[in-house]
Specification:
12% helix; 24% strand; four-stranded antiparallel sheet; elongated; three-stranded antiparallel sheet
Length: 168
Amino acid sequence: MSEPTRTARRTVLAAGAVALAGGALTACGGGDEKQTNGAGAATPPSAAPSQPDGASSAPPAPASSPAEGGATGKALLKAAAVPVGGGTVLKDEKLVVTQPTAGSYRCFTAVCTHQGCLVNKVADGTIDCPCHGSKFQVADGAVAHGPATRPLAEKKIVVSAAGEISLA
């Protein structure tokens, strides 16, 4: 019988690190997410791309008032339920809807980019995670205070003429 080859400890640790990193990247992948307008903000339905390949000559601007017509998704909440300068956490949907300025609504995932906890409140202009203290700006989801290093993912929303906010 031949003598087994010895594997260096460094090789085993490196292989384990590669396996963990691959698993983390797979878990964080967003293959099912819909494309946003780049801002994730509510936009009127008429601002949606009209070309078959989804290309548009100019990106739609964020909505500053409720859009005309109906929303394409299930209503999440009424616009009146989102305070100006603050927001509302929708735990079941894992979303947070904010209103940084009067009539301008934004939507972000409620999953903290640090370790995946759900944010639990919006206060003093930030979206707050209770697990390790990360805070994100209500206006754009950017990190205001770590340990998170990446912003919250934005989701495209529409605001109906009736004042209902829905995913686009």
